[in-house]
Amino acid sequence: MMKFFNILIFISIVHFSCEQEKIPTNLEFEQKVFYNIFPKLVDLTYYDLRLIPPPPPPSDYLEEKGYDVKKDYKKAYDDWKKSDDYLQRYKAWERERDSIVNDNALIYIAFSDSIAGFDKEDMFELLNHFKNEKLIIDSKNLDFNTGFKVDFNKLKSNNKKLRFKPVSSFPEGSEIWNDKYDLAGVLSFSRILFDKTKSYGVLNAGFMKGRLNGGGLRIFIKKNKKGTWIIDEIKEIWIS
């Protein structure tokens, strides 16, 4: 009986130890959330510039077509939009857009090799954004210098054409925009700053589409009643 009792105690200890090992660290929890919401984050930050309708033509183009832009550009532009010239140009763009949508060509984005650091300002932004929830942030245990290496096998996207490559595989500086690399952009994220209950969070995103063409976002996330992480709001914080 004593031997049987000892076996039960041993099994209980092992079971308890296994349960303890299953509890993720703060960084492991953060990584799990990050990879889980990554497809949603990409939907927010990336868009194919080729699919955007062409901008209004310059004034000299409308003048060449006989429209009085000096008197009223808006009226000249509105009148031009009723012309065959506009219709032909728009249909040409539609054909190009449809061709892009229907092709199987992959789209490559350079992505940070690691996710590192918080922005201290985000502590106040998180508290202010969810002020009705009266959040608490364990600021004493925040490590602003550490991060984690990105597992590119876990970077999924709702856009089946997208592929992510480590930014370290490209040259530093503006050389990354050399046409031979055929990049759609460079994407980066900060670490996620959570409240003490790990039910609310904030992170920053940056997406560059060229040397002087990009923007940054602050993204607020929260866990809904079903336990699913969702995007609560995004705010533009810089543009170039």
Q: What attributes characterize this protein structure?
A:
single chain, 240 residues, seven-stranded mixed β-sheet, two-stranded antiparallel ribbon, 6 helices, 9 strands, 24% strand
Poorly predicted segments:
14-20
Shape: elongated
**β content, as a range?**
15-25%
User: What kind of sheet is the major sheet?
Assistant: 7 strands, mixed
Report the span from N to C terminus: 76 Å
What does this structure look like?
- By secondary structure, the protein is an alpha+beta fold.
- Helices cover 35% and strands 24% of the residues.
- Strands 1, 4, 5, 6, 7, 8 and 9 form a seven-stranded mixed beta sheet that branches. A two-stranded antiparallel sheet has the order 2-3.
- Strand 7 (200-210) and strand 8 form a beta hairpin.
Quick take:
With 240 residues, the chain is of the alpha+beta class. Helix content is 35%, strand content 24%.
